[in-house]
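Translate sequence into C-alpha cells.
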Amino acid sequence: GFIFCMICTTGIALGTLTPEEVKNGSGLFNLMRNLGGAIGLALINTGLHERQWHHYAHLSNAINDSRAPVRETLEGGNALLGSTLGSQANGAVLQQLHQLVLREATVMGFNDVMLCMSGVCALAIALTWFADKPGQLGAASESH
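Result follows.
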C-alpha cells in the first residue's frame, strides 16, 4: 500500500511544475523524502525510548510487597523455584517480575508512538485538501 501513497505524493509534488522544472523538482523531492524519512525514524525511535521508560517508571512504582498480587507472585514463585534454586529463588522471581514490567512498558510505549503517528497521518490527510491540484498526466506525454 505504501507505493500507492508515493504515487499520489509524487503527483502532488511534481504535478504543478513545468516540464523543464521536473528534473530538478524530482531530485529535490527525493532528497526531502529521504531526509524526512531519516528524521521521522529518529523521532519515532526517540519517542519510543522515552515513552517506554516513562511507563516503566510508573509501573515499577506500583510493584511493592504491600500489594496482594505482587506478594502472591513472589510467594508462588519462591515456592515453585525454591526446591530447585534454593536461596536464589527470590532473585529469579524478581528478575521475572522485572521482565514482565519491562515487556508491558514496551507495549505501552509502542501504543503511545502509534497513536502519535496516527495523529500525524490524520493531519497529513486533512492537509491534502489544501494542496494545489496537479496538472493533467497526459500533458507530459505530448513531447514524445
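Note: The mean pLDDT is 83.
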